[in-house]
Design brief:
Layout (H helix, E strand, L loop, with lengths): L1 H31 L3 H8 L4 H33 L1 H21 L3 H14 L2 H12 L5 H29 L3 H19 L21 H10 L3 H15 L1 H14 L3 H52 L3 H5 L2 H5 L4 H11 L6 H32 L8 H20 L7
Length: about 400
């Protein structure tokens, strides 16, 4: 009994470490959201169109590097442990923030983004860490908590960044760099390793350390590739949010920045409630597969509602519905991590990260172009067309999950 209690205590302590790490990391990301576009605009001489084009280049480049390096970092985590990869990722992010804080030109900003894109693996490696220390039946719950840490950061980070940005446009980046470096020290001196030597991969295989090679893992386990497809469709559909939603809500409802800020706050709080309080009980009651299906249906219905709502008030009524998309990724991660061995958890998360990078590359182009076309086309003026496309992608995710999301053999 004592050994069992000790093991539970260690798992709880490890989760607390990782949750705190994820929370601080997401806040540091959130801090720069309202500031980076304005800094880019400053370097383009106040040209908004040029700043938008550079922002697309920054985002697509970051996604491309994630697509390439995600499998490498995942295999590194399987071969040498989760902790070294987390430390590399955090240090790379801190240096990136310092580049942005001190950059004398736009190209220095770009170099910082390149460095961050090559090393960013904190959330994927943290998920592998949690898979190491959490029993399979509890993973969906802890993945839900991890999602809530991400949401918390994007609720409070932009507010902090906006406040500091009023003082100085560079100050938020110094704050983010300091917070990330503290996170690095936290991991260096406090965070224990989750993957013991005897459970690590025997060697680092370069044949699998690339986006195409990572597909070998997804194809080698029954049902894993279709589940990865569900995750990709989910990520791709959600790229519509940062790509057009500010422009869409301003165009359709005439919302001011303050109203937009309160809307994002309400959306974030609703998401946190689902991710932190409801994922565990719902998964326990209906299972991981049904949680994924509910999340996909909520996303399909929520996006369709957002695209259709003729008034801002009706738009807001969809927020509680859309919040239940927070069930999809925790349930999906729970199903996927059950299908691979401890020696492959990092590779799995690296493959997922690579697919997320791919969605970050193609999503802005798809949704940005559709939105622009829908506004300019005189015979077919439908501002919500891009959001309907996102809804259709979530419908495809539901159909794929309905077929593929079967309960795997326990590992």
């Amino acid at each position: 009994m004592t050994d069992g209690n000790t093991a539970v205590g260690r798992r709880q302590a490890s989760f607390a470490f990782i949750f705190a790490l994820a929370l601080m990391n997401s806040i540091s990301f959130g801090i720069m959201i309202p500031i980076l576009p304005n800094l880019i605009k400053q370097f383009t001489g106040g040209d908004t169109a040029a700043a938008s084009e550079w922002g697309l280049v920054f985002g697509a480049t970051w996604g491309l590097l994630q697509f390439i390096t995600g499998p490498i970092l995942g295999l590194m985590a399987d071969r040498w442990g989760r902790r070294p990869v987390l430390l590399i990722s955090l240090l790379g992010l801190a240096v990136d923030f310092l580049f942005m804080a001190l950059a004398p030109s736009l190209w220095w900003l770009f170099i910082g983004r390149l460095l961050n894109g090559m090393t960013a693996a904190s959330f994927s490696t943290a998920n592998a860490y949690l898979a190491d220390v959490t029993p399979p039946q509890d993973r969906a719950k802890v993945f839900g908590w991890m999602s809530s840490a991400f949401s918390f950061g994007f609720i409070f980070g932009p507010a902090i960044g906006g406040y500091l940005g009023e003082i100085s446009l560079r100050l938020p980046f110094f704050a983010a760099a300091g917070l990330t470096f503290l996170n690095f020290l936290y991991g260096l001196f406090i965070l224990p390793e989750s993957l013991p030597p005897e459970r690590r991969a025997a060697r680092f295989d370069w044949k699998r350390a690339n986006p195409l090679g990572s597909l070998t893992l997804l194809r080698s386990h029954t049902g894993l590739l279709p589940l990865a497809g569900v995750g990709f469709l989910f990520q791709l559909a959600h790229v519509v949010l940062p790509t057009i939603f500010v422009l869409y809500m301003g165009y359709r409802y005439g919302w001011t920045p303050s109203v937009l800020g309160m809307t994002f706050l309400a959306t974030g709080i609703a998401g946190v409630i689902v991710q932190s309080l409801l994922v565990g009980p719902i998964v326990k009651r209906v299972g991981e597969r049904n949680a994924v299906l509910i999340g996909a249906l909520a996303g399909m219905a929520g996006f369709a509602w957002y695209a259709t709502a003729p008034t801002g008030t009706l738009y807001l009524l969809a927020v509680p519905v859309f919040a239940f998309t927070g069930l999809l990724m925790p349930g999906l991660q729970g199903l996927m991590t059950r299908r691979v061995s401890p020696q492959q958890q990092g590779q799995l998360q690296g493959a997922n990260q690579s697919l997320m990078g791919l969605s970050s590359i193609i999503g802005p182009v798809i949704f940005g172009e559709i939105f622009a076309w829908s506004l300019r086309h005189e015979g077919f003026h439908l501002p919500g067309l891009a959001i309907y496309v996102a809804s259709a992608l979530m419908g495809c995710a539901f159909l794929l999950a309905f077929v593929a999301a079967r309960q795997p053999v326990e590992r």
